[in-house]
Amino acid sequence: QVQLVESGGGLVQAGDSLRLSCAASGGTFSNSIMGWFRQAPGKEREIVATISRSGGRAYYVDSVNFRFVVSRDNAKNVASLQMNSLKPEDTAVYYCAADPSSNWFAISRAGADYDYWGQGTQVTVSS
């Protein structure tokens, strides 16, 4: 069983940066694909980014591509999401999630594939 705890959210202005962290415990972090999702009020949850177990393969939703960077440190059991050039439309609750996988290079874009979820951290971007 993997426990995930997000941190780093907050209130920022448009154009600012934030770095979200996801600390994992209770399981084998390196055995899991890691994903970042977000849900804005009145909207469905959407994938933001996902990173393979190796860290060498990643996917970004178009709206954050070239602004956000996902990374992981398997030695420290931490996944991170560096968010740059934030926009008001990035306002949402951000969740990290873990998808145990036997494939070192696989990524996963579907929320239904993820077995473990953090409690979420609020990101608010003012204009």
Detailed description of the structure:
The chain is mainly β. Helices cover 0% and strands 50% of the residues. A hairpin with a 6-residue loop joins β4 (32-39) and β5 (46-51). The radius of gyration is 13 Å and the shape is globular. The model has no long low-confidence stretch (mean pLDDT 96).
Mean pLDDT over the full residue set: 96
**Largest sheet composition:** 7 strands, mixed
User: Could you estimate the helical fraction of the residues in percent?
Assistant: under 10%
Proportion in β-strands: over 45%
Radius of gyration: 13 Å
Stretches where pLDDT is under 50 for at least 5 consecutive residues are none
Instruction: Please work out how many helical segments DSSP would assign.
Output: 0
Order of helices and strands: EEEEEEEEEEE
The termini sit apart by 40 Å
List the helices and strands and how they pair.
Elements: E1 3-7, E2 10-13, E3 18-25, E4 32-39, E5 46-51, E6 58-60, E7 68-73, E8 78-83, E9 92-100, E10 116-117, E11 121-126
Parallel strand pairs: 2-11
Antiparallel strand pairs: 1-3, 3-8, 4-5, 4-9, 5-6, 7-8, 9-10, 9-11
Short note summarizing the structure:
The chain has 127 residues and is mainly β. It is 0% helix and 50% strand.
Keywords:
single chain, 0% helix, 127 residues, mainly beta, 50% strand, 11 strands, seven-stranded mixed sheet
